[in-house]
Amino acid sequence: MMCINIVSVAPMRAQAAHRSEMVSQLLFGEQCEILNSEGDFYQVRSRYDGYEGWVQATQLVPMEAGLFDESMVCTAALDAHVWVNDRPLRLSPGSECYFAASGRGKVNRETLALPGYSIRYQHPLPLMPLEPATPNSEAIITCAMQYLGTPYLWGGKSIWGIDCSGFVQMVFKQNGMFVPRDAWQQAEGGDAIGFLQEAKPGDLAFFDNAEGRITHVGILLNDHQILHASGVVRIDPIDNEGIIHAESGRRTHHLRLLKRYF
User: Fold this and answer.
1) Which family, according to UniProt (predicted)?
2) Active site residue 32
3) Architecture per CATH, 137-260
4) pLDDT tens digits, residue range 127-158?
């Protein structure tokens, strides 16, 4: 059975318990498939990236196949919201909004009816089609900069708390390009770039730990600065060895490889 998330951010946990590790999140409107149930939780698989985890059942609503005629992704960081049963609900960038056809086939951009819920859309709501597109450097950097100062949160994907790979995934999602959820998965895609001096804004830099495992990713602003989630989403210097913390001058991440997705 397919469901849709009807809260701003729904935690996806490793186990069916509120105290369990948060491995990812579902943003408003993101769809998932129910795999199992235990107590107050559903085990789900995200339709967008295939990630699996346990989500509180009351945060999800069943949906009919073929219910939507148009799918959009929210691209605004500030003051984007919808009304769910006449209650305002803030949206994080990367949230999904859907539109259904009326009886005469015209797409209804005002409201969406779900079992037990009525969703009313703010207008104008900054949206773009949730479909493949070819982004450009300027669009990626503009989108990425709206997360500047967002607190780091393990498993996070929202403007209220985000991890390094969630940050990259959400920026590219809003620009019509899919990248996987985890940094090591993201490192397996894209085209390799030989040297930092060959990179362009929007390219991805990956970093490894002492065991050689990819543990961090960021978005290059140019060949000497990187935007990444480390404590907060911040800008730090980067060279061929890795990231240098802007305030302390300490090296924090060892550069492993560079990739271009567009």
Assistant:
1) Belongs to the peptidase C40 family.
2) no
3) Alpha-Beta Complex (3.90)
4) 888 888 988 999 999 999 999 999 999 999 99
Catalytic residue list contains 164: yes
**In the Cβ-directed half-sphere of 262, how many Cα atoms lie within 13 Å?**
23
The pair of three-digit structure tokens given for residue 191, joined into one six-digit string:
């085209």
- The domain segmentation of the chain, as residue ranges, is 1-130, 137-260
pTM: predicted TM-score of the whole model, two decimal places: 0.94
Which tokens belong to 208? 């490894």
| Cα-based distances in Å from 37 to 11, 34, 42, 115, 189 | 16, 8, 4, 20, 33
Which member of 3, 97, 228, 253 is catalytic? Answer: 228
Query: CATH assignment of 1-130?
Result: 2.30.30.40
- Beta carbons within 10 angstroms of residue 239's beta carbon: 12
Question: Residue 228 catalytic?
Answer: yes
Catalytic residue among 216, 224, 245, 253: 216
